[in-house]
Each structure stands twice: as structure tokens, then as C-alpha cells.
């Protein structure tokens, strides 16, 4: 490769709108050896702060994520994968990192590096809460086509929930009534999958999803699966106190399933943690802001011992 070629490819990486990171696969801790400007902007960390470190730093204390298990598995096998992870910027703010990892091989077929392509999946949640009155005729009529059903659980998909939330948010804003968001996460799903296998993990996710969605009985309540054992739900008309009680009920009902989980740090059965946030939206609020607050409450529930709502 000529020097002109090298300069061209570097400019290509540096002008990419997606974050691109290169890690050294020949070192045991997979240290970062390159991070483009878009990744630095996405995370708030400079190249100097990233070089030589493992990207697990972006997960902070939020290590109980099924995506981490799948990522480790793929890296160990030298395979490509795509995962969605809760990551944290330098200033502590949470973002959903949609990550695609690809192995890079030398002429002998050995993996020398992994290239990671990163984007903020939360951008899809940044909706305009303002909508004209003619677009508000009837809740739960999505404005654009979206795949409705999650194949694993039968719940809604996240893009479909986004469409429904966009409508209900505008209605709640116009009518000055509250709307509650629930961020639900399967505790220690990675350890459950390691113990019993992926098929058993999927079965447990389906049972948990069924119980959680069963706690939300009104036609206006919506539940979706984000990824792995992470669910999101919203319920119009609930106060913070009512929503917190409902989050606690979700945790209790999942615990009552008594799905054996011998490696759980909480108890010997599958449990969930729930983050709850409810507001009466005003002009300064947005659906994405409320979702972020629910995710932060979820981390409080986990740090407080899991198997609870916060």
C-alpha cells in the first residue's frame, strides 16, 4: 500500500459519521490502538484517553448485559457480531451503543485486530414531541411503517414502540396528563446463558416478558423488547407513585415464576430490576429524555441490590 493509499484510508475513517475503533487482538486485554473523531465525539473521551484501554470502560459499573456475553463469545471465536449495549460517556450520561464488530485477519488468516463500528441508537428515540392536531386522531396508529412484533417474545419491537410513544407523548403534552416509562432488565442474564445455554435463556426471556407485559393490562399500555433481556414499557396516565408500585409488582411477579438461577447474586431464581420515571411533559421535555431517566433509575435499582424497582 502506498503512502497515498494510507492517507486516503485514514481520511475515510476520520470523516466517517459513525464511530470507528481498532483494537489489538494480539494483546490479552484488546487495547484500543485507534479511535476516529466520531467515536471521540460519541463518548466524550479523547483519543489519548482511549488508547491502550479496553472499551469495557464505557460500561462503567453496568456489567450485567446480555450483549456483553455475546460480544465476549464472538471475540473469543474471532467472529463478527452486532450488539446493543448501555454505555456511558465521559460525563456519565447514558447512551445506547449499537456496535458492529468485525475481525481483521493477516495473510495467514490469523485475527490481528477487531474493528468496531459504533453509533448512538438513542438518536432514533429523539422525537419531536410537537405534532399537529390532525395527526392525533386516535392513539396507537403509527405514522410510518415499522416491524410490529418481536419474534422472540411476541412483544412490540422498539421501533414500533417509538411510533406509539411519539403519539401518546404529544397527547399527554396537549392534555397535561402524566406518562410513565419503565426500563426492565433481566438480572444476570449473561450468567444464566452461560449456565443453561442460549435456548434456555431465550425461553426464560419469553416467560419474563409475558409476566411483565401482563402487569400492563390497559389498551394504552405498551411493552417492547430492546435487546436480550432488556424491555421498555410506557403507560399513560400514571403518577410516579403509581408507576413505582407497578414496577415493584413486575419484580414480584417475575420472582414468583421461580425460574431456577443458581448463579444469581440476588437469590436462587430469575429476577428483574426496574427503572421507573413519570412526568407530565412540557415543551422542554422529550420522550428520549424520559427514557434516559428511566434507564438511570434502572441502574440505581441494580446498584441497590437488584430484584426491585427504583
Detail the topology: elements first, then pairings.
Elements: H1 3-14, E1 19-24, E2 32-35, H2 37-43, H3 47-50, H4 66-77, E3 81-88, E4 94-105, E5 111-120, E6 156-157, H5 158-175, E7 179-186, H6 189-196, H7 198-214, E8 222-227, E9 230-236, H8 240-256, E10 272-279, H9 287-303
Parallel strand pairs: 6-8
Antiparallel strand pairs: 1-2, 1-5, 3-4, 4-5, 7-9, 7-10, 8-9
Helix pairs in contact: 4-6, 6-7, 7-8
**Major sheet summary line:** 5 strands, antiparallel
Q: CATH topology of the largest domain, anyone?
A: Alpha-Beta Plaits
Number of domains: 2
| Rg value | 21 Å
Spatially, the strands of the biggest sheet line up as: 2-1-5-4-3
Strand percentage lies at 15-25%
Which shape, going by the Cα principal axes?
globular
Report the top-level CATH class of the largest domain. Alpha Beta
Number of strands: 10
Succession of helices and strands: HEEHHHEEEEHEHHEEHEH
| CA distance, first residue to last residue | 55 Å
What structural class do you assign from the helix and strand content? Answer: alpha+beta
Q: How many helices?
A: 9
Second rung of CATH, namely the architecture of the largest domain: 2-Layer Sandwich
Mean pLDDT: 86
Which residues sit in consecutive blocks of at least 5 with pLDDT less than 50?
Answer: 125-145
Helical coverage, percent range: 25-40%
Amino acid at each position: 500500500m502506498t503512502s497515498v493509499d494510507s492517507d486516503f484510508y485514514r481520511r475515510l475513517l476520520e470523516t466517517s459519521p459513525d464511530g470507528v475503533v481498532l483494537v489489538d487482538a494480539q494483546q490479552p486485554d484488546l487495547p484500543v490502538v485507534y479511535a476516529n473523531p466520531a467515536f471521540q465525539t460519541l463518548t466524550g473521551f479523547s483519543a489519548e484517553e482511549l488508547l491502550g484501554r479496553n472499551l469495557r470502560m464505557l460500561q462503567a459499573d453496568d456489567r450485567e448485559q446480555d450483549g456483553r456475553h455475546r460480544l465476549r463469545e464472538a471475540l473469543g471465536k474471532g467472529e463478527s457480531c452486532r450488539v446493543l449495549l448501555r454505555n456511558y460517556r465521559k460525563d456519565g450520561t447514558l447512551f445506547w451503543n449499537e456496535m458492529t464488530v468485525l475481525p481483521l485477519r493477516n495473510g495467514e488468516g490469523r485475527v490481528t485486530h477487531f474493528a468496531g463500528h459504533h453509533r448512538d441508537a438513542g438518536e432514533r428515540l429523539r422525537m419531536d414531541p410537537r405534532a399537529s392536531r390532525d395527526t392525533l386522531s386516535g392513539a396507537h396508529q403509527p405514522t410510518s411503517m415499522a416491524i410490529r412484533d418481536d419474534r422472540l417474545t411476541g412483544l412490540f419491537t422498539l421501533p414500533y414502540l417509538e411510533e406509539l410513544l411519539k403519539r401518546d407523548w404529544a397527547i399527554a403534552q396537549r392534555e397535561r396528563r402524566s406518562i410513565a416509562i419503565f426500563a426492565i432488565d433481566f438480572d444476570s442474564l449473561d450468567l444464566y446463558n452461560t449456565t443453561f445455554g442460549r435456548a434456555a435463556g431465550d425461553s426464560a426471556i419469553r416467560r419474563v416478558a409475558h409476566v411483565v407485559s401482563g402487569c400492563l393490562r390497559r389498551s394504552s399500555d405498551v411493552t417492547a423488547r430492546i435487546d436480550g433481556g432488556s424491555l421498555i414499557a410506557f403507560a399513560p396516565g400514571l403518577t410516579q407513585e403509581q408507576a413505582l408500585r407497578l414496577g415493584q409488582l413486575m419484580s414480584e411477579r417475575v420472582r414468583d415464576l421461580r425460574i431456577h438461577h443458581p448463579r444469581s447474586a440476588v437469590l436462587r431464581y430469575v429476577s428483574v430490576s426496574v427503572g421507573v420515571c413519570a412526568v407530565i411533559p412540557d415543551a422542554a421535555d422529550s420522550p428520549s429524555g424520559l427514557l434516559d431517566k428511566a434507564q438511570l433509575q434502572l441502574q440505581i435499582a441494580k446498584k441497590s441490590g437488584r430484584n426491585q424497582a427504583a
